[in-house]
Write a structure and sequence with these properties.
This protein has 550 residues and is α/β, with parallel strands linked by helices. It folds into 4 domains: 19-65; 67-189, no CATH class; 203-322 and 343-396, Rossmann fold (3-Layer(aba) Sandwich); 401-549, no CATH class. It contains 22 helices and 15 strands. The strands form 4 sheets. The chain has a 7-stranded mixed β-sheet with strand order 8-7-10-11-12-9-13. The protein has a 4-stranded antiparallel β-sheet with strand order 1-6-5-4. Strands 2-3 form a two-stranded antiparallel ribbon. Helix 20 packs parallel to helix 22 (521-549). The longest helix is centred in the first third of the chain and has 34 residues, at 34-67. The model is unreliable at 317-347 and 417-462 (pLDDT under 50). It binds adenosine-5'-triphosphate (ATP). Adenosine-5'-triphosphate binds next to helix 9 and helix 21. It comes from Thelephora ganbajun.
């Protein structure tokens, strides 16, 4: 088209549109352009294709949804840990060739070693890489699993597991999760899980601890048994409580000398009762009355809630009447506009009434055992100590004569070695009750395991003159078992008991002393008197320097 024609056409169009300006006229004019017609065709064809594509995909999704069931498990949720541990033992993951390193423990003391490569804690453990798709058959169902990681805001990433089961339903998912849970529980049979709240005020598994045998806690006769029995009885009495309309909660206040076994006893009771421990730290930054109430309401039904050093929280932060937010925070922040620079104890805003309400208000969780510890019983408000909040009060004192002797005995009492051969043979033979009792009495929960046959042998401390200071010799010596006859042990126990002053030392201090003579019972008994003198002299010196300072 030459320029004269184009200009004539444009003049025609302009005339048509000026004489009769309507949409129909505009459409006729536009359609008179061949290029425009082609664009419209292309647009229509594209539209048809896109619609078909969407229909096909929607149909495919519907088919997939009806035959596959998918479930996402997020890190932080218990079920994620269960699945990870279960999968760590699954051949489909053991054969994977796309790997990543991992330090995650999945709630276990001894994290799963996916490929059996780590010989000790410090070695690198491998795990299946992100976005690796593994497939396997589980009870005649085809399962696809993929790990993934999504980067979120402020460098926070979320790890998750995607599980797809062909032809599965909710029951199938529950079955797999139940199996994974059993596997996880088996892996942590000898452990207790410890939870603490994070900055988002959610409970998080922070560690797993080995269970501590109750017999390793030495208290005066009957004390620990009474607490354990009380706790067992409480856990069995849900109906009894509900029939009488009494809130189903029990509080234990363990108070007394530092290092006398309060925390150790709670850890041990948690193990005996198979309960997880939830640490409520009243001085956690950002904790206020509302968030404390939420945390306590979020506790699982059966657990141990632990508040350690409740008096310390009281002195720093708890009071019935805190100044209102405005005044105190202004005073605190003052020239310091950065809230994170405010001392931590000041950033926790718990009031005593907030704590009291959280413990037994309407929102408080039922079925939990609350254990609180304190070194300053008298400093606690009477309202906090009253029955209903703290039902059982147990005083822990400095070591009694009985405790001194028992600690020594248990420290050096030989334990039968539990080698694999012994274990398997003991399965074949029926052990008599007496045998069993014997084993129990000689199992200290502390001592170095020794062979049962050599248990009656005498002490093998190396004479000091032949002590070779080379590393190899020291290592060899450290590995040697303490072999001491029970009769001899009794004599040493008596000597130790005579040397240590009753009610003067904490069990922790005595344990520290014995640890200095880990494999030397004779030496421990002999030097105890001298150690006591030194400790008393140190105390005296400290006292007189404090007097001078005053
Ligand atoms: N009665 C006891 N029997 C056995 N070991 C004990 C006992 N008391 C203390 N110990 C030992 O002393 C150490 C400290 O004990 P623990 O932390 O339980 O004391 P605590 O009373 O909670 O102390 P604190 O009041 O300072 O928190 C632990 O290693 C524990 O093994």
């Amino acid at each position: 088209m030459d320029l004269t024609n184009l200009s004539a056409n444009l003049t025609n169009i302009t005339n048509t549109l000026t004489e009769k300006p309507s949409i129909a006229n505009l459409a006729t004019v536009l359609l008179s352009f061949t290029g425009f017609q082609n664009w419209v065709k292309l647009f229509l064809i594209g539209g048809v294709f896109e619609t078909c594509r969407r229909v096909v995909f929607r149909a495919w999704d519907t088919i997939v949804d009806s035959v596959w069931i998918t479930v996402d498990l997020e890190d932080g949720d218990d079920s994620y840990d269960w699945m990870m541990v279960w999968l760590s033992q699954h051949p489909s993951w053991l054969k994977a060739r796309k790997l990543a390193t991992s330090t995650s423990s999945f709630g276990l003391e001894d994290p799963p070693d996916f490929f059996g490569t780590a010989k000790n804690d410090r070695e690198v453990r491998f795990i299946v890489a992100y976005d690796y798709n593994s497939t396997f058959w589980h009870k005649r169902r085809y399962v696809k699993v993929m790990r993934s990681k999504a980067e979120g805001l402020s460098y926070h990433s979320t790890r998750s597991l995607h599980l797809s089961i062909l032809g599965g339903n909710h029951q199938t998912v529950q079955d797999i999760l139940a199996e994974a849970r059993v596997c996880w529980q088996k892996a942590r049979e000898e452990q207790i899980s410890v939870y603490a709240s994070d900055v988002r005020n959610e409970w998080r598994l922070i560690t797993s601890r080995p269970k501590r045998p109750l017999k390793s806690i030495i208290l005066d006769v009957g004390v620990k048994e009474a607490i354990l029995e009380d706790a067992l009885d409480f856990l069995d009495s849900k109906e009894w409580y509900s029939e009488r309309g009494i809130p189903f909660r029990r509080g234990y206040l363990l108070y007394g000398a530092p290092g006398s076994g309060k925390t150790s006893l709670i850890q041990s009771i948690a193990g005996e009762l198979n309960l997880d421990v939830y640490i409520i730290s009243l001085s956690r930054a950002g904790l206020d009355d509302n968030s404390l109430q939420e945390l306590i309401a979020d506790l699982p039904e059966h657990c141990i809630a632990l508040m350690e050093d409740i008096d310390a929280a009281f002195h720093r932060t708890l009071s019935r009447d805190l100044p209102d937010e405005g005044e105190e925070s202004k005073e605190l922040r003052g020239s310091n506009p950065n809230p994170s620079a405010i001392p931590q104890e000041r950033t926790s805003r718990i009031s005593l009434s907030g704590l009291l309400n959280a413990l037994d208000g309407v929102g408080a969780q039922e079925g939990r055992l609350l254990f609180a510890t304190t070194n300053r019983y008298e400093a606690l408000d009477a309202a906090l100590r009253r029955p209903g909040r703290m039902d059982v009060h147990v005083e822990f004192k400095l070591a009694s004569r009985y405790q001194i002797g028992e600690l020594f005995k248990r420290f050096y009492l030989p334990t039968p070695r539990t080698s694999s051969t012994q274990r398997s043979s003991s399965k074949d033979t029926t052990t008599s009750k007496e045998d069993d009792d014997d084993r129990k009495t000689s199992d200290s929960g502390y001592g170095t395991p020794v062979n049962a046959e050599t248990e009656k042998l005498i002490d093998v401390e190396l004479p000091s003159e032949v002590r070779d200071q080379s590393l190899a010799a020291i290592t060899r010596r450290r590995k040697r078992d303490v072999k001491i006859s029970l009769e001899e042990l009794d004599v040493l126990v008596e000597r130790f008991r005579e040397s240590i002053l009753e009610g003067e030392f904490s069990m922790a201090a005595l344990q520290g002393y014995l640890l200095m003579h880990k494999n030397q019972p004779h030496r421990a008994a002999e030097c105890a008197g001298k150690w006591v003198e030194e400790e008393m002299a140190k105390r005296e010196a400290k006292r007189s320097s404090e007097k001078k300072d005053l």
